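Consider today's protein:

***
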Amino acid sequence: MSREDTIIESIEEDLRLQREAGKLSQQNLGKEWARRMLTEPGRFIENEIRLKQEALRDFRKDQIFVGDLPVGRRGIFNLFNFMDGARRGHAKMLKESLGVLEEAGFLDLLRKYPISHVGNPDIFCHKGCRFTFAWARHIYFLGLFRKYIAPRLKTDFTALDLGSNYGLFSSLLKSEFNGSHNILVDLPQQLSLAHYYLSLNFPEAKIATYKDLEKPDVIGKDMIKRYDFILVPCYFYDKIAKDAVDVFTNFMSLQEMSREFFDYYLTRGPFLSAPFFFTVNRYQSAPTYDNGLTILDYPLGDFERIHFATTPIVGQRYKRKMLFFYTYFPYASQHFEFIGKRA
């Protein structure tokens, strides 16, 4: 049995145990995520527990759960990449993201961590760098973490990433800070992708999954320190011990949640006891999301501000115009980036 087969078998066992426990359905996710959960899991999971191996191998190329750029850019000399206005606009945006990294002083991180091929993403190549937009954006977040937070932490810190998806930020954090312990909190199906992605990128890593977390009443410091990655389904969030987390991060997903879940995550022990908070989200969720959330709903006043800015790497995009051209249009709401130390 290959390593990939062993990983898939472990993921399927986790899904089976969760289905038997009635844990695979979630309520009141908000309109957008309720829609995604009707379609996205079925793209790589059959009957809730059986993984489609080829779909899993291509989950980033096929953009399961999360979109990315470029799209379909196979072969740099593909004529359509030069003719199609949308793809040319994407290329411009990707080049601009490289400029953001260079201006911020984070380009060394992109060169140090070229994009992982797990999930078979479409990759953009420019100035000797290989990346996607999501990869460049998370390299930027890693740069902010390295600049503002890392000097204030011990080398074996614990970071919790809420809405972690397939674990991109956690994987970069682990690569840069090898002694770190990383908690990923998300829906069970997305954690299946994280299990696959992290296992292939970190073959020696110790990864805690549902079967490791089911029986303990508390996910405490001692347990966390035994693992490199701890994949916590969102319904086990309350199991994470108070004072177990050093840094609480969230990128782009608090803005998408229903107000019920937004309040739930930010009024429980893992968040309330975390000394540092690092987030990037919209100033207001409307009009894309109908939850009524704005920056005023985030408890930023509970923290001494270390860094605050309008983030430069998610604030603009381009769309096709008359097939061969593209035009700039701004996001309906810009995004803020905030790093704070609990007051």
Notes: The longest helix spans residues 85-104. The chain has a mean pLDDT of 91.
